[in-house]
Specification:
With about 625 residues, the protein is an alpha+beta fold. The protein has 21 helices and 15 strands. A hairpin with a 2-residue loop joins β3 and β4.
């Protein structure tokens, strides 16, 4: 299960409808529809992966059938078959139709809305049997219900629904306009229960910005989106391009450009433009997943210039090519069934459970770094579930304090560390190995992993210690006036609010043996601090005025106990070639003008090899 799916499931454990809305829907960025559906569905069928995902996969299948019917009505049976075939085999729609999130419901409801809209307004091509149903009330009711479902499913399905309703104003005939307006009133009435949730979530604006995690799209967003639509495959893009241009050229006399072609362009392109410019001008929301609802209309456009008459040899040949090439690209090129498409929770949980089974629950301290312990507990048996009193997330200052305190007070011979879909700096590994220096197991997945450490030196480690190229300590020759004279045992340099910088470790890159692939580790010990915020440990490589490399760690990344010595660290791999005449510096920057003492400052350079670790501080 993905992070978003587990997040949705974790917000189902409430006592009723109103509590689900208050605690399970409003804090989220999605309308209530899918969350309420999951609440009642899991109440009947349970929380197993199969039970949770099954209805969403069925909605994906229904979407393929609906696209065929729309394509047949608008452009002919050949277009419908080819568009539906592409929707069934491309990775983009396949991936998002198999997870328990709003995407396949939004896709199905959006296509259902267009299907009933086409019949109700008679938008289909001349001779299409569905167009003869214009004005049927059952189609109008189906249209209104489908639009309402879009509005309760996802906000970009909501936008897509609005575009469909707007487009209807250009297709509605005089004898059906009053019926169309009645459908509009019905849609508004049906959305009254969702208005409070909508206004609350609208105030949030988006998932980016200063408090969000999503960045605005770049100028290459459309090109990247098209690449993603077609599996990032040159072969597939070539096949679709040849099919489109070839049919336009060959059948240009038979198949004119109609209002339905303009409609396909409008429904495909407008959601992209809204997402793009809203993300640039207001708050970032742009993700490929939110464009799934409009993607089918690109497929319709690409195959829309085939003749309307019965399926010809050309259509059958193209259907064969599109299906085979799409399956080959998705299964073999993209390795769809071998690739982790989302961060891993099942395997991470399995690592915790196996460690506890093998060494005993009382012998293993478990520290997790996930957004909620539920995400791991979903897979863990009852006797191995994480407790709320343990360390299950390390993002805030208080949580980092709890993490370092748990390391310092752990009495067990083993420590299991699990993380998934959350920032986990390599400095955490350095901190853990101060107390549990031997790494026994290392499993790394997409933005997630599991590690088993021990302090038992008799255990066989899975790694070698990386080769030390050179290490150097700070030179304090020019800072004699700031030497702490109150402590005769431990040497330290005083920092006052007026002291922005202090001693450094400095030298030529060639002297340190720096080159591409090396790993640097900086260490500093801070004493008598009032706060670690704004005390920065900085490593830089400079060539003249050009910064070749720069990394800085804020003191808030480390333990916060006042007046307690704090070990700050900084680890970085050098991924580019380093000029030999570049200057290397490791220093402490008193950015926020704090008072503290610097006891030591050390820079070490290692030559990395596979499965190696840096010695703990």
């Amino acid at each position: 299960m993905s992070n978003d799916e587990l997040s949705a499931l974790s917000r189902l454990h409430f006592s009723g409808h109103s509590e689900i809305i208050e605690k399970g829907v409003i804090p989220d960025f999605h309308p209530a529809g899918v969350q309420l559906f999951l609440y009642y569905w899991t109440g009947i069928f349970g929380f197993s992966e199969f039970a949770v995902r099954f209805p969403f996969a069925i909605m994906g299948v229904v979407s393929v059938l609906l696209l065929f019917r729309i394509g047949k009505s608008w452009f002919g049976e050949s277009t419908g078959l080819l568009a539906a075939s592409a929707l069934a085999v491309l990775e983009f729609p396949l991936l998002y139709s198999q997870i328990a999130r709003p995407y396949s419901p939004g896709l199905m409801c959006g296509l259902a809305a267009v299907f009933f809209w086409t019949r109700f307004l008679g938008v289909g091509r001349q001779g299409d049997t569905d167009s003869n149903r214009r004005g049927y009330w059952w189609d109008g009711v189906g249209f209104a219900l489908s639009i309402s479902c879009c509005m309760y499913t996802h906000y970009f399905a909501f936008i897509f629904a609005g575009l469909v309703c707007f487009a209807g104003l250009f297709f509605v005939k005089r004898d059906t306009i009053w019926k169309y307006l009645v459908c509009g009133v019905l849609i508004l009435v049906l959305y009254i229960p969702g208005w409070e949730v909508f206004t609350h979530q609208l105030a949030k604006g988006g998932i980016g910005g200063p408090d969000g995690w999503l960045s605005p799209p770049g100028s290459d967003a459309f090109g990247n989106y098209i690449d993603y639509c077609f599996n990032d495959s040159f072969l597939l893009k070539l096949i679709f391009f040849i099919t489109f241009t070839g049919t336009v050229i060959i059948y240009r006399g038979k198949v004119p450009f109609t209002s339905r072609h303009y409609l396909s362009v409008f429904l495909f392109l407008t959601p992209f433009l809204i997402a793009y410019f809203y993300s640039i001008l207001v708050n970032p929301v742009f993700q490929f997943s939110i464009l799934l609802f409009s993607f089918p209309f690109l497929l319709l456009l690409l195959f829309s210039f085939l003749p309307i008459d019965r399926i010809s040899f050309t259509s059958k040949f193209l259907l064969f090519v599109i299906t085979i090439a799409g399956c080959h690209s998705t299964v073999n090129e993209k390795k769809y069934y071998e690739t982790s498409h989302f961060t891993e929770f099942r395997a991470v949980s399995k690592g915790i459970q196996i460690a506890k089974q093998e060494y005993g629950s009382e012998s293993v301290t478990v520290i997790a770094n996930v957004h909620s312990p539920y995400y791991l507990n979903y897979y863990l048996e009852d006797t191995f579930k994480l407790r709320d009193t343990g360390v299950t997330r390390i993002t805030s200052e208080q949580e980092r304090d709890a993490f370092y305190a748990a390391l310092a007070t752990a009495k067990t011979p083993y420590l299991a560390y699990a993380y998934s879909n959350i920032y986990t700096p390599v400095e955490f590994d350095v901190a853990i190995r101060q107390y549990f220096p031997i790494v026994m197991q290392l499993d790394t997945f997409l933005n997630s992993g599991f590690r088993l450490y021990t302090r038992n030196i008799a255990e066989r480690p899975i790694h070698d210690v990386a080769d030390l190229v050179r290490s150097a300590d700070m030179s304090a020759a020019n800072f004699s006036s700031r030497v702490d004279t109150s402590n005769k045992i431990n040497f330290a340099i005083n920092f006052s609010p007026s002291d922005e910088f202090g001693p450094s470790v400095e030298g030529d890159a060639s002297g340190f043996g720096l080159r591409k692939g090396c790993v640097i580790q900086g260490e500093a010990t801070i004493l008598d601090h009032d706060s670690l915020s704004g005390i920065m440990l900085v490593f830089s490589i400079e060539q003249g005025s050009n910064k070749v490399f720069y990394k800085a760690n804020d003191g808030t990344l480390f333990r916060h106990g006042l007046k307690v010595p704090v070990k700050m660290s900084l680890v970085a791999e050098l991924a580019t070639e380093i000029p030999e005449d570049a200057v290397v510096k490791l220093y402490v920057w008193n950015k926020d003008k704090r008072s503290f003492k610097l006891q030591d400052l050390k820079l070490s350079v290692y030559r990395e090899r596979p499965n190696t670790f840096f010695p703990p501080m």
